[in-house]
Design goal:
Layout lengths: L12 H10 L1 E6 L2 E7 L8 E7 L7 H26 L4 E7 L7 H21 L2
Parallel strand pairs: 3-4
Antiparallel strand pairs: 1-2, 2-4
């Protein structure tokens, strides 16, 4: 359960375009922004996720990749709660990092767990 496989990553251009055009505006809790769309996914997983870090805030690719690694780790450790609150739904999820300054892993972890609980609340409300 605590793994992050290739099948759980959102890679398809059509699904990403659908997520950002027709998807739920989601919610924002600094430095994260969550948005999602309920759809049928090509893989047999409940959630496919994409991580977004702004090139404007982080012009160096090494900085963006470090933040994406941290986000993947945070998601990997907390995805069980997302899977539990989804039930039979399948969603495409976008997690954006919007802070102009990097934050420590412990700060991110506290905020991310709050965001995951809010995501579960929003998903259960829309069922």
């Amino acid at each position: 359960m605590y793994t992050f496989h290739k099948s759980e990553r959102l890679c398809g251009k059509k699904l990403i375009a659908q997520l950002f055009t027709k998807g739920n505006r989601g919610f924002s809790r600094f430095p994260f922004r969550f948005s999602w769309v309920t759809t049928s996914l090509p893989e047999a997983v409940p959630v496919q996720v994409v991580f977004v870090v702004s090139k404007r805030n982080y012009p160096k690719a090494t900085d963006r990749n470090k933040i994406k690694r941290q986000l993947r780790e945070l998601y990997r450790l907390s995805k069980k709660s997302v899977y539990d609150c989804l039930g039979e739904q399948q969603i495409a999820l976008s997690i954006s990092f919007n802070s102009p300054q990097p934050k420590s892993y412990h700060e991110l972890n506290e905020i991310f767990t709050q965001c995951i609980s809010q995501l579960c609340y929003e998903l259960s409300k829309n069922r």
